[in-house]
Amino acid sequence: MYKYLLCLFFPVLVFSQSQKISGTVLNAEKQQLDSVKVELYNSENILVESIFTNSAGNFSFENLSAQSFKLKINDEKYLSFEKLVDAKNNNEILSIILKNNQKDIEGVTLTKKKPLVKRKVDRLEFNVENSNISSLNAWEILKKTPQVTINNDVLAVKGGTSVLITINDKKVMMTGEELKNLLENTQGNDVKSVEVITNPPAKYEAEGGAVLNIVMKKNKIEGYLGVLSSKYVQTQYAKGVAGLSQYYKKNKLSLMGSYFRGTGTYYREETGYVSYPEDGTTWINTMNRKDKAKNQNTVNFNVEYEIDSLTTASLNYSGYFNPRSFGTYNVPTVIYNSQNIVESDYTTINDHHSRTINNSLSFQVDRKLNKKSSLSWINYFTGNNSTKHQNVLTYLNFVNQSPRETNFMTDNKSDVQLYSTQFDYQWKGDKMELEAGTKYSFVKTDSKLDFSDNENGSFQYRPEKSSLFDYKEHNFAVYTSLAYNIGKWNFKGGLRAEMTDLEGIVSEPYEVNKNNYWSLFPTFYAQYTTENKHEFGFSYGKRISRPSYSWLNPAKSYYNLFSYYQGDPKLKATIIHNLNFTYSFKNWNVDFYYRKELFPSMEISFQQHENNNLVYYYTNIEKGEAFGMSLYKNFEIKPWWNLIVSENIEHNENYFTGIDGALNKNQVWNLVSTISTSFTLDKSSDWKMEVGHNYYSPAIQGTFRISSQWSAYFVMNRKFFNKKLEAAFIFNDIFRSTQQKISTKYGNQDNYFLDYQDTQGFTFSLKYNFGNQSVKNTKTIKKADEQERL
């Protein structure tokens, strides 16, 4: 037993090397190529062993018993390579240069290719570098990534919405609209690939069900690059964004800075329906939300300096400032009696404004200990401050009552601060790789809700409806991971342990909630590749999804006199088990998966019949289970014409305890289908067009049943002036077909709302590049998983 533990935590490779074949794989620009498959055949043309190059482009076949072999490299990005070699016992290293796979067709020379999907032992790599979608921004690229769907701006991977976004394996400390703005302002030309990690290895945070890692191109060429961009969006109302990004590299110093400012009006249509069988009434309201944000600011600055040949230090600052968003909702509600005759009505006028400020500062040091090992130290701090004020006036005209009006105000303030530090160690040999690390983080949140209502012409503070909520959370984690490649088999396994110590204090009524627990998160992967390049894979992973900090706040946030939202300070963390079987062959990628969630937390609704209130609140349901299949294939019909088919079919079950105390089951077969086709319209690939279709069949979320929806889109972009100016036109939701019905119907619960999020419209964008066009993005510093819960 001790021998196995020693092998896991402190591997030492000792080979009695007699004969070997080593080399480095490069492209035509002499850049080292990683993750390229190198195959070794004997004199009888039988496969002896296959391995992948490491991050430095190196490979090595060792302990060879024969003398003569044949090396083969087949990669879709490059022309096939074959070479007869002799095994030797000296240190001679082969240098292999792969030529680009360029195809000539009638009158058209294409240097850009379709996106390449590559299956690795622990992830699916979607390589978009130099592809026909690299001109899009990072947000649009995610929409085209296999197994990824974006429905109403909500990211999902194979049906699961608990998704962590990283850039170069570094956590992005933004969520929601802030995250979307960041990715929309990230140039696709700077993106190398997107990695879909449905079972993240132990080095990743245990938080979240899946990881989407955006791999950026490295800044290797010295010089200056500037990018001036603007975007106009016309839906129901207009929105616009303009910004400047600048990149500079000289000797050991790399700098990157960007600033974007947005403004516009956001619109959303809702119609609500609530039936109360006890008194036989039906309440129907119409709410058209219109909010203006005149000054949305996104700032990012990164500096990287090579202290010496082995040590690099990085400093990053990112900020999001929205000093004022405001709007006034006029919401009429009509009440029908059991004979379907209008007997009462009321109108709510909600006048509100809000402010959001997010500041993040990170510092990282990377140190190469030797040729095979390295160490990283990362520190970061984040502060998120938000305020929201609303003045709600209601005119009541109820049957058998005199007309009257009520008026209340709420002020909601929230402040979140988090700090984290971590160490990561990596040792990488030719066939084995070890990763280990530790992390500590501390989070503190303060939330305050002040409620006042109008009594005899003046507002009076109501402590029974106000609240103070203080929350503290300590997290400590250690992990280790070991990967081993042997012939046609690739194996990887790891274990992560996380300790959570939390305390939540509620002021009214006074309540203290404390919890302390350790959790273990194992992962395991296996991949087998046949001689004919059929790839079979298996993986298992255990994850945790902790509730957002705002979900823990028990204060009642009122929408109107009869409806409010409320969190729960006793929310449990969700434990997620993922099981995957994969198959890949000639760009066919198929996944069979099973997902089990214990006590998933989510927003649901329930009716309080005694006072006709409709309450939205976050809670834990009993469990959720899903199994399904995911399929992705990119067909190259012609060198200038691609067709992409992406399908995901899933059976999903949610078990929840209803308001009557009975256990209920909500289940559905769900299909998500994406079909798109793209064309290259001129010989230099500067003019491209794409049309596509997305379909979402009915889905569920706890008590909710969500209706189907579909949308069609059109994209065209072209470059001008020696590719310095790029113009793009996008028409989304062409037929205005994305309205959804979200309903709850069981026992005495009967309510739904129709929701349309203003998706039909067009976008026109311009981007101008100046300076050295070869300069690429600097590395983004690692970010914290706790930020996902802001």
Automatic annotation (TrEMBL):
Q: Which InterPro entries match?
A: Beta-barrel_TonB_sf, OMP_b-brl_3
Keyword Cell inner membrane listed? The answer is no
Q: Where is the Outer membrane protein beta-barrel domain?
A: 370-768
Q: Where in the cell is it found?
A: Cell outer membrane
Q: What is this protein called?
A: Outer membrane beta-barrel family protein
> Keywords on this record?
Cell outer membrane, Membrane
Species per Swiss-Prot/TrEMBL record: Chryseobacterium zhengzhouense
